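U., I forgot to send this yesterday:
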Amino acid sequence: MLTYELKKSPGVPLYEALYRCIRGDILSGNLRPGEKLPSKRALAQHLEVSKITVEGAYNQLLSEGYICSREKVGYFVEAVEHPQNPRVFSPAASTPAKVVPALDLTANATGQFPFSVWSRLQREVMLDYGHQLLQGLPLQGIPELRQAIAAHLSAFRGMSVDPENILIGAGTDFLYNLLIQLLGRDMVYALEEPGYGKIHKIYAAGGVACIGAAMDSRGVLPQKLGKARVLHISPSHHFPTGLVTPVSRRMELLDWASRVDGWIIEDDYDSEFRFNAHPMPAMQSMNTERVIYMNSFSKTLAPSIRISYMVLPRALMERFRGNLGFYSCTVSSFEQYTLARFLRDGHFEKHINRMRKFYRSRRNRVVSLLESCPMAEKFTILEQDAGLHFLVQVDTAVSDEALTALLAAQGIRVHTLSEYYHQSPPEQLHCLVVNYSSIDEDALKKALETLEIP
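Result:
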């Protein structure tokens, strides 16, 4: 007779506890193939549980193939292949917890989200649209959001955009993959060097050939693009250097795109945060037929707001509808209607203006702390008056890798500029990329007071 101690556990029914015990004995070999199990009534009486409990356990074992039933005879153990060297979880073998640095100069801000306005608009959307929110979506996104984005781009980026050429997607990662399919995998992509490493990984994972686009102090060098026919560029605020591509270089790059019958993907991420001047007009406004414009609300609102968009040239949008029109929109209608109202009613403009003021003040305080700390003579701050990060040149003889390790040992997590080169950087740059958007100013002050750099 089977003997088990069935104890009530929160969230685990008795029948499941019995099922687990019998299954364990079958897998361990304590119950051998062909061995007869007690009847439901006999086992219930022996364990002092209800017959329904035993019946539930037996039915689960039957459905999973651990036992079989023979009419008017009973239940028998099936032949089950035992796992070889089953892996047993061991807390000691688990991945060690990551050490949280006292000061993180790599994290993005999440604390300034306009919760009260956003939640109010969500309630309005629920009341106004109701069951309509459960219906299917146009593949490009709801018209209301595309119209609101077009109006925003016209007012703040000098772009004349047809809402029918806007495509909404859940994050730029998704849109990059759509572009790979739309433009074709036989294209060679040129990516800024240095640049945001994740973009290179996405394109490479999509099966396209990628090369580095060499840069000087004015941006990407068109004569260094080789066999590329697609250029991914962030001309309004390059990450991580922060440089802005002047109009003359933009014209050279547009001329290159026309000559090679290629495309420019203009990534306008982070362009909203300029503090002492308006953003330069987008490249898309200079050539609407060769430039694919992309932007996201992840930086301006929150990383979890996975709403991005791209503006396709008319010919590419027609190709998209013809070749990739089977895709469904990846952003829920609830979020789209909410964001549409947030843009349309002027809340986004107010939010950006408030954030500019907040981040300008924070940046000035961070710069002041760096300039007045004991190690200030080793720092040269390279500002571009834009974005939520800046560069700090460090006067040191140690390598970049040793420098980040040295800072990590002192509780400071930070990236160096050399880490953003896909290929080897030209030399040891000794340049830190300081993201100040979510910085703890008290922690920064404390860290700088005891900082030691050889």
